[in-house]
Amino acid sequence: MPTAQARRRALVEILEQGDAQSQAEILDALADAGHPTTQPVVSRDLRALGAMKADGRYLLPQEERVTPLESLATLLRDA
């Protein structure tokens, strides 16, 4: 039986394709990938991954831009 971690990896791959417009579509895609599950589980996984619905499709959050501490020290010194 697939693990929750494997299911979430599959969910990330589905979301990265950028065309998941509903949780029903996500359920079908997960089942096709060998991870049959239920809508409440998909909903919890989406929340755990920080996914959001925008422009009619589910998206993963963008990576935060983080300034390395070395660069930050230089920036503050020059300010």
What would your notes on this structure say?
This protein has four helices and two strands; from the N terminus they run αααββα. It has helices at 4-17, 23-32, 39-49, 69-78; strands at residues 52-54, 57-59. Strands 1-2 form a two-stranded antiparallel ribbon. The model has no long low-confidence stretch (mean pLDDT 87).
Features:
79 residues, mainly alpha, two-stranded antiparallel sheet, 4 helices
Strand content: 5-15%
Mean pLDDT: 87
As laid out across the biggest beta sheet, the strand order is 1-2
* Largest sheet entry: 2 strands, antiparallel
Provide a brief overview of the structure:
This protein is mainly alpha-helical. It has helices at residues 4-17, 23-32, 39-49, 69-78, and strands at residues 52-54, 57-59. A two-stranded antiparallel ribbon has the order 1-2.
Blueprint (SSEs and pairs):
Blueprint: H1 4-17, H2 23-32, H3 39-49, E1 52-54, E2 57-59, H4 69-78
Antiparallel strand pairs: 1-2
